[in-house]
Design goal:
About 10% of the residues lie in helices and about 40% in strands. The protein has about 130 residues and is mainly beta.
């Protein structure tokens, strides 16, 4: 009887410590750059995304093709007229499990300057992190 109680207590403890399932929410796409004068960035997010929005309080416009069930999403972020993109958060992506942040990646496909001239994509490095 005592052994059974110990097994039951250990099982209850283990169940309380187990994974509680996916936690849906948003991840942040952040840009690292020292370049001044960025007008827009086009990038691809690898991993299943259900939506893309602009960061709270930013004047950025965000366009995406977040197709349901796809493993990659194309995103374009454009700064407001008279302003530019700056280092920091440039977009938020909606995901089914925020704890799987390491399974997401973003890379720059194209960059444009203030007059929409194309720039070297190595000027910006993107990361996907928890906000």
């Amino acid at each position: 009887m005592r052994r059974w109680l110990l097994v039951a207590a250990a099982s209850a403890f283990a169940a309380g410590c187990s994974d509680q399932g996916p936690v849906s929410g948003e991840l942040s796409v952040r840009a690292a750059t020292q370049f001044v004068g960025l007008r827009a960035v086009q990038f691809v997010v690898k991993g299943p995304v259900s939506g893309v929005t602009r960061p709270t309080g930013s004047g950025y416009q965000v366009f995406s093709d977040a197709p349901s069930g796809a493993d990659s999403t194309h995103v374009v972020v454009v700064s407001a007229p008279g302003t530019g993109l700056v280092a920091g958060e440039i977009a938020r992506i909606a995901v089914s499990d925020t704890r799987q942040v390491r399974s997401y990646a973003a890379h720059v496909a194209a960059l444009s300057g203030a007059s929409y001239n194309l720039l070297d994509t190595s000027l910006v490095v993107l990361t996907v992190v928890r906000p």
